[in-house]
Amino acid sequence: MPKTPSRSDRTAAAVGLAKAVVAHVYGVTPEDLSSPKRFARATRARQVAMYLSAVVLNMTPSEIARAFSRHRATAIYACQRIEDMRDNAEMDRTLCWLESLVRTATGADA
After folding, report:
1. At 45, is the pLDDT very low, low, confident or very high (cuts 50, 70, 90)?
2. Which CATH number belongs to the domain containing residue 85 in this structure?
3. Domain-located, residue 4
4. Does pTM top 0.85 for this prediction?
5. Three-class SS of residue 90?
6. What's the start-to-end Cα distance of the chain, in Å?
7. What share of the chain is helix, strand, coil (3-state, %, to 5)?
8. What range defines the domain where residue 84 resides?
9. Among 26, 25, 28, 21, which Cα is nearest to 53's?
10. How many independent structural domains does the chain possess?
11. CB burial of residue 14 (10 Å; 0-12, 13-18, 19+)
């Protein structure tokens, strides 16, 4: 009988898909999202991917921090920063679109 993947295995796979979607849209590599490098495009993409991990994948700040090789406080800051950016109509549309892409790619419930 095949073994059922654990929650952590499913979460890691879902985060990998979310990273791939966001990296493609922002023109960076998925590795850039967990890299210690700090350049503007990768930083914004990482923040967006962290935010999507919270809202679409229902991950905790600690889980997000581990998935992106960051501190928990950094994950919290990223989510707050992106949430604040939703006041901009264009950014809100972009985030809605990305949320739908990640939900589709991961099979996450709406």
Report:
1. very high
2. 1.10.1750.10
3. no
4. yes
5. helix
6. 30
7. 70, 0, 30
8. 9-106
9. 21
10. 1
11. buried
